[in-house]
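User: Can you predict the 3D structure for this chain?
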Amino acid sequence: MVDQGSSAEIMYPDLYKGLNLRPKDLTADDSPLVSFDGKVVILKGQITLLVQAGSEVVEVDFIVVDACSLYTTIVVRPWLHALGAVSSTLHQKVKYPSGGQIKEIVGNGPTEDAKCEDLEKFAIGDILEKFFQVGAQLPPQENEELVEFLKRNINVFAWNAYEAPGMDSSFIYHYLNVNPSVNPRKQPPRRSSKDHSDVVRDEMIKLK
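Assistant: Here is the predicted structure, written as structure tokens:
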């Protein structure tokens, strides 16, 4: 992924392991890093690698993070500047000068021709709100076996929030990324001005 708004090249664990790199290849890095959702990300360290784009080779300092992502790596402004490249998120391309020519790297994101698989609906009993959706391209025997399997295990599904009042913490749990030694502070309430409140009230009335 190319992110023009960031200044740190990021590498995720899947790519790091796929390159057969070892933990001892990392150098320590204690710089704070905040993810897209505002959370502080745990850094595993930093590593300098050569990245090839066509015939051009650029040295890139990657920060390796211990986090899951849809991407294997994120390259940003330092890589673009070193390559002399211009990127377009709209066209999913990066163009750069090389040997007196303009070359391009084309992304592999979704295109206009991308199409989702058609789904086939299977109702559960007489209640229309309860149903499964199975890929319509499955072979008939696999389709039948899958539907029968889902029906046999119907009791593990929750059809609304009230059917799942609790969850065993040994299976999954959520936690807050906070320092337990720091006392929490309540932020003072933010009160709108009268003019702003009147406008909001008028807009809400229009929605009724």
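The chain has a mean pLDDT of 79. Residues 9-106 form a domain with the Cathepsin D, subunit A; domain 1 fold (CATH 2.40.70).
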